[in-house]
Amino acid sequence: MKHLLSINDLGAEGIDEVCRLADHFTEVSQRPIPKVPALRGKTVAMLFYEDSTRTRLSFEVAARRLSADVMGFGVSSSSVNKGESVRDTVNTISAMGPDALVVRHRSAGVPHQVAGWTNASVINAGDGWHEHPTQALLDCYTIRDRLGSVAGRRIVIVGDIKHSRVARSCVMAFTAQGAKVTLVAPPTLLPPALDSWPVDISFSLDAVLSDCDVVYGLRVQMERQSEALLPSLREYTARWGLTAARAARMNPGALVMHPGPVNRGVEIAPEVLDRPNATLNEQVRHGVAVRMAILYLLLGADPQPRPERDQA
Amino acid sequence: MSTVIKGGLVIDQTGERTADVVVDDGRIVAVGPDLSGDQVLDASGCVVSPGFVDLHTHLRQPGAEEAETIETGGWAAVRGGFSAVVAMPNTNPAIDCAAVVQEVLLLGSQAPCDVYTSGAITVGRKGEQLAPMAEMAGLGVRLFTDDGNGVQDAGLMRRAMEYAAGLGVVLAQHCEVDSLAAGGQMHEGEWSSLLGIPGVPAEAEELMVMRDIALSRFTGAPVHFQHLSTGGSIAMVRAAREAGLAVTAEVATHHFTLTDEACASYNPVFKVNPPLRPADDREAVREGLADGAVDAIATDHAPHSPDAKEMPFDQAPPGMLGLETALALALTELNLPIAEVVGLLSWRPAAIAGLNGTHGGPIAPDAPANLCVFDPDEEWTVDPDDLASRSRNTPYAGRRVRGRVRHTVVGSRPVVVDREMRP
Fold this sequence. Notes:
heterodimer; A: alpha/beta; Rossmann fold; 2 domains; five-stranded parallel beta sheet; 11 helices; 9 strands; globular; disordered C terminus; B: alpha/beta; Urease, subunit C, domain 1; TIM Barrel; nine-stranded mixed beta sheet; about 25% helix
């Protein structure tokens, strides 16, 4: 595998392999010196066109624990501020010979475009509303760690599905692993034309809450009110928020997950976040091991020279 | 110096016959067997048709000369068999007053094809205040549109139609309700959902088609619908015509060729407005061309510089090249008799643009000598580097197509001979 642009690049077997590698790197991360020389001499460049705390730090930590060198790139401190195009920036960074580019951009598809412009491996760290594959992988890993497997689990994803790259990647990853996924949102926050998606749809969290193994909450943004997608966040919370009362009706042992950052009290009540079945910190912790696995898979296992890509 | 086009099958609105055609001094001199002239254009195995007329060409001048100029766009036109193009007014400044019309016509007089221009319906294409249509009509403008924008205000559109009817000119509408389309970058449907790209629903187009049909019925004024892309739009136009309303319509080549699935590449070369639609809509567009609901094939030739088309999909400008591939795509994709394809590209759009008598045939003595000679059977592969346009944003790179323009004659002057440009 050359790039990780979409969960579809991995498939069910690829996800299994990532999780197996992540088990190993979890063990590495628990050592007194949590570092292995697997990617010594490799360089990983971060191209983050959009603000990010956990994803960017997680990739940087992952790369360093594999002994790779990290090239940072922040839009605010770079020539992007001077109007440089993505392609020119990619050409510039590629000229320095990185082995991987970790790309986040607010526009869907930018990592796909970048993959056509560089010889390096491209890892999608979130593109617009499209995908965030490493998030979905760390979520799969967290569910396996807590519940033993993803297969057969009933997973409810609730919130702003329409604008969520996490939702798209999670639907693909969870269903590829054999989970039964239900999307819950008001119709205004669902993507159109979902007939071909391998999911169930519900407009009511209450209707599906007592019958699931995971409730996966998504961030709801304030601006959805001004776009006439929601009357108010208050109404959203009343009907689709994971309140303490709703959490009390979940199966014992059912997980509460969220990709972060959380709007406390909007999509999930603060006291629910503090319960032992809420996995937010574990998700972040597993993110490092999973990203080590992805970097190793793309950069470590392949000794032969990379073929030249067609620059057209 | 006279030119004889020898050995071709002459097709115009009066029928078809094998004949030589002699042109000289701007006009057709003779049509018949065994004619001679000072120079010979071989047309054996080829169709000799009226030069094509494009109702929808973005020549980008003034304002975006890095993408196209009237001259380079003119060369793209004649290489595609077009002897006349109607420039769209979404230039910078917009073609919304006599001064800009005159500039475009002056530049157009140096182009290898005849360049006509549309005028904007509203000042700056802003949809707020009527543009001086009478002043522009006085310079020969026959088609008015805010293309790129639809006229959002129904009351303003009503007055524009009434005013235009009094001038004997036609209003053409880019149908798109902004409040539904806002932020959309491709067709809203299964593919936009999967790709995470904001969508434009078919209804954004159809609501304005519906409204303008009602306004045409109300005012009695003619309306021309530009680049229709959905099955619903085609059906409404068909019904309006059957009801006897003065409604005409064009479709763009890409809407009978491509579908929204192409956007899965995230290559902005497939971004266009109205967007590529699903296969059902593509089929409806083809049916509209076959059964007469649609009058004309237009190119919506929309050049953009390579830089612009390397931006992220949602930031890249919409539009694709079309002049040099329109004939081939029509012959390859439509499964229509050649004479019908020729009509959709020549005399039918010529009538809408008010150019009949000058362009679109017939091919007869004393008629203006605007002709296209094409081989309907030649197969070729679209190569972006072999285009006369200043831009390269064709969505058909590498595509095998059938039917190729060999010669183009504008005003009796052979401007394209054996596919070579003759400046």
